[in-house]
Amino acid sequence: MKPKLLLHSCCAPCSIYVLKELAKNYQLSIFFYDPNIHPRLEYIKRRDEMKTYAKKIGLSFEEGEYDSKKWFVKTAGLENEPEKGKRCEVCFDIRLGETAKKASKEKYDLWTTVMSISPHKDVGQINCVANKLADKYKVKFLEANWKKNNGFKIGSQMGKEEGFYRQDYCGCVYSKLAREKIIQARKNED
Length: 190
Prior knowledge:
Elements: E1 4-9, H1 12-22, E2 27-32, H2 40-56, E3 60-63, H3 68-74, H4 86-105, E4 110-113, H5 123-137, E5 140-141, H6 151-162, H7 173-189
Parallel strand pairs: 1-2, 1-4, 2-3, 4-5
Helix pairs in contact: 1-6, 4-5
């Protein structure tokens, strides 16, 4: 029997390639815990698409509590941090902490996250936070860099073929504002 793995997911486009790869060696369950995603309608859009896809491919899907107030409290003072900065580290700790806790409580063999597929995320930062949580909750974390071997590119193509909605920011309101500034700057250059 394949080992049981709990997979933290933030959206279907980031998950599709990772799911395909992990399914070769693991019995998977998807955990969608992302209180960082704003606005709420964006959260619902990403959650519903991931839930629908999980059902389509026959995987269990569970959603954690959408406690955005807790997320804002824990990231207070980090609003101006750049992508891959301290705010991301705190955000990873929140989201992956819930994943590790669930994996431990429900006796999974190991757990991991799809987030390392994003070119906007620091794999070392993700794995460092996750390994501390694995030690804390006594459940193994599967380190991965899903960007390797064109993972992001392959996943993007798979998502396009599946007709997934592709968001243009990572999820939090601060990454959304940073993205909007970039778009506005490009418009001003034209």
